Amino acid sequence: MSNLDMSEAIKMLAQEKGLSVDALLQVLVEALASAYKRRPDAADEVQVGVDPDTMEFTFTAYDLDEDGEWVNPRDDTPNKAELGRIAAQTVRQVMSQRIREVERDRKFEEYANREGDLVSGIIERTEARYALLDLGRVEALMPQAEQVPYERPNRGDRSKAYIVEVRKTAKGPQIVVSRTHPGLIKRLFELEVPEIADGVVELRACAREPGHRTKIAVWSNDHNVDPVGACVGARGARVRMVVNELRGEKIDIVPFSDDLADFVSKALSPAKVTQVVISDDGTQADVIVPDHQLSLAIGREGQNARLAARLTGVRIDIRSETQDADGETSGGYAAELGNVEYAEGEWVENAESGEMEWHAADGSVISQAEWAAQTSDGVEEEAVESVEDEASDALGAPESSDSEVADGDAEGGDDVD
C-alpha cells in the first residue's frame, strides 16, 4: 500500500468510526510501537513518529539505564518486510482494541455532563427487571425501579427518559435513565412550553406519584404572563402533549405563592379551602374545608393531600368545618411530608452464571431471582388494586378530584385527565 493509499484509508476509517484523524494516527502509532517491541532484537523502549502529510513513520529506539531513564537514542526504523506477518497481526489487534477504547471514551465524554437531560430512544430489549433504550450510538439502562408501575414498554416503541446517572465502565459508558424522576416532568414541559424554556415561567416545585398523578407549582417572572395558562395552553394542548407522553398520568398545575398559607390552599386544588393556619415554625398547616369538600381535598387514598404536602414541604392536617366546630382534634386527615427515594445502583451480569444481579450503592447484591421473589407479592396486590380502580371508573364511580382540562382560567389550578 502506498503512502497516499494509507492516508486515504486512515481518513475513511476515521469517518466511519466517528473519530478524528489525529486520534486514529495516535492509535496507529501505539500499535506500531507494540509490534516493534515483539521483534527479537527490539530495544527496551521506542518512540514512533509519523508525518501526517507523507505518512512516513520513524522509530527512535532507547535503552534503559539502572534508574529506568531512557538513554542512547538512535534511529531504528525497520522496513515493511522486517515487521513481518506477526507484527502486522499485532498492529491489527492493538488498533482494534485501541479504537474501541477511544470510541468508549468519546461516548462517555459525550454523555458525562448530560445528567439531568432528556433523551429519546427506542426500546430495544425488555426483561423482567430492566429495559434497554437505544439512543443511537449507545444504549441506556432503565432498571425496574425507574420504570412507571404497570407501564409495559414494548420493543420498538419510542420513549423519552430522564438521565439519572452516567458511569464509566470497562465496557463503555453506562447510562441509567428513569421514567419516574420528577425531573422528567420539568424537561417535558420545557419542550412544550416556550415560556419555560425562555425563563419567563419557572417550575418552582414538583410532587409526583409515577403513573398516577403529579402536582407542579409554576411562577411567572412577567406579570403579563399567566403561568398556569401558559403551561395548559389553548384548550389544554400543551399539557395534553405531556400527559400523552406519560401515558395518561394526571397533572395538576397550580400557581406558586410566597405566602405559605395561600400556597397550601392552592396546592389542595381542585378542593376549595375555607381557612389555612400555619404553625409558628412553618412546618405544619391546619386546613379547614367545607364538609362537602373534605373527600375532594383528601383525594383517593389520601393522594391529593399527600401530593400537596410534598409540593409545599409542610405537614398538612385537613378537617371539615363540622369537625372544627365540634372541636375535634382527631378525625381529620394528616398528610405527612414524604421524601421520594430513587434507586441507586446498577444491573451487572454475573460472569459465571450469566444471571443479572442488582449491585446497590450500599454494597448489597441481589440476584434477579431473589428480587423477583421479594417483589412478586407486592406487585400482585398492587395489580389487584389497579384492576378494582379501573372497574370502579368504568362503572361511573364519581371521583370529584378528577375534573376536565381547563383553559387556564381556573384560579386554584388545572387538573388534566
Question: How is this structure best described in words?
Answer:
The protein is an alpha+beta fold and 417 residues long. Among the domains are: 3-110, NusA, N-terminal domain (N Utilization Substance Protein A, Chain:P, domain 4, 2-Layer Sandwich), CATH 3.30.1480.10; 118-178, OB fold (Dihydrolipoamide Acetyltransferase, E2P) (Beta Barrel); 267-340, GMP Synthetase, Chain A, domain 3. The protein has twelve helices and 19 strands. The protein has helices spanning 3-17, 21-37, 80-112, 182-192, 194-197, 227-232, 237-245, 260-267, 294-298, 303-312, 321-325, 368-394, and strands at residues 45-50, 57-64, 70-75, 118-126, 130-134, 139-143, 158-169, 172-178, 201-209, 213-220, 250-255, 275-278, 284-289, 315-320, 333-335, 345-349, 356-360, 365-367, 414-416. The strands form five sheets. Strands 4-5-6-8-7 form a five-stranded mixed barrel. Strands 9-10-11-19 form a four-stranded mixed β-sheet, with helices on both faces. 27% of the residues are buried.
